[in-house]
Design brief:
Order of helices and strands: HHH
Shape: elongated
Low-confidence stretches: none
Distance between the termini: 57 Å
Helix content: over 70%
Largest sheet: none
Oligomer: single chain
Mean pLDDT: 94
Strand content: under 5%
Length: 105
């Protein structure tokens, strides 16, 4: 039998990795702004890797719930989900903003 998921720890892991991803995406935009596209592309990759880690924690929660294990909803968990979705959107927008800067060169 698998260990139950510690919701507080999982929420903090999602927040950590999502925050790292968002930070890298924002740095990527700043690098593109000054024409450093190689660094911007590297940072977008880093953002994606961090967001993948956060998403893996989210997926574990979803899989457990789909298997019938209830997860009590709390504000921290809601916050972590919001943080992840916002960070994923920032990363997607960073890709588009970088492309705009690239086309201006």
């Amino acid at each position: 039998m698998e260990q139950p998921i510690d919701l507080t720890e999982t929420a903090f892991q999602i927040i950590l990795y999502a925050g790292n991803g968002k930070g890298s995406a924002m740095e990527a935009i700043q690098e593109a702004k000054v024409g450093n596209f190689a660094k911007a592309d590297e940072l977008v990759k880093e953002a994606g890797a961090e967001l993948t880690k956060a998403h893996e924690f989210q997926t574990k929660l979803i899989q457990k719930e789909a298997a019938g294990e209830e997860n009590p909803v709390n504000v921290l968990l809601i916050h972590s989900q919001d943080h992840l979705m916002t960070s994923m959107t920032v990363r997607d927008l960073a890709v588009e903003i970088i492309e705009i800067y690239r086309l201006k060169e």
